[in-house]
Amino acid sequence: MMVGSRTHTLLFPLLLLASLMVVSEGTWDLKYRHVYIKNGLDNHTILRFRCKSADDDLGTQNLKYDEEFKFQFRPSIFTNTVFHCSFTWDGKYRTFPIYDFKRDENSCHDCYWSIKQNFPCRFDNKTQGYDFCAFDYGFN
């Protein structure tokens, strides 16, 4: 009877170690993500925003034209990390998921966003421009 208990005691740490190796080797890439938010509105418009996830609230931020705000985080092991932001300028109010693990997992470890009048656009390393515009993701 003692031998069976001992086998289970040794088996659990080995299974845990194996699962951690799978996670660290790329099944889930849980390395830090960096998100940059840039005011791309115009020279005289202040962009005010607040971003939150289920675990973190980054507080209210104000950016002058062409200024940038950066934050970093490590995605949840459950792969459900989403940072929602609310943006205000010139009496307009818009919301947008600035980071969504399901959308950004494979395309965005360093996510550079420029907030424009009609929608946010993410920097594309291939084209070297803010070409991935989020009109499909609802800039409400």
Shape: globular
Given helix and strand content, the structural type is alpha+beta
Instruction: Give the CA-CA distance, first to last residue.
Output: 63 Å
CATH fold field value of the largest domain: Immunoglobulin-like
Low-confidence parts, pLDDT < 50 over ≥5 residues?
Answer: 20-27
Elements, N to C (H/E): HEEEEEEHEEE
Number of spatially distinct domains: 2
CATH homologous superfamily descriptor of the largest domain: Immunoglobulins
Largest sheet: 5 strands, mixed
Beta strand count: 9
Oligomeric state of this protein: single chain
Helix fraction, binned, reads 10-25%
CATH architecture of the largest domain: Sandwich
- Total number of helices: 2
Strand order, sheet with most strands: 4-1-7-8-9
CATH class of the largest domain, anyone? Mainly Beta
**What Rg, in angstroms, do the CA atoms define?**
20 Å
Strand content: 35-45%
Mean pLDDT: 82
Subcellular location: Secreted
Family: Belongs to the plant self-incompatibility (S1) protein family.
Organism: Lupinus luteus
Keywords: Secreted, Self-incompatibility, Signal
Tell me the layout of helices and strands.
Elements: H1 2-27, E1 33-39, E2 47-52, E3 57-63, E4 68-73, E5 82-89, E6 92-100, H2 101-104, E7 110-115, E8 120-124, E9 129-133
Parallel strand pairs: 1-7
Antiparallel strand pairs: 1-4, 2-3, 2-5, 5-6, 7-8, 8-9
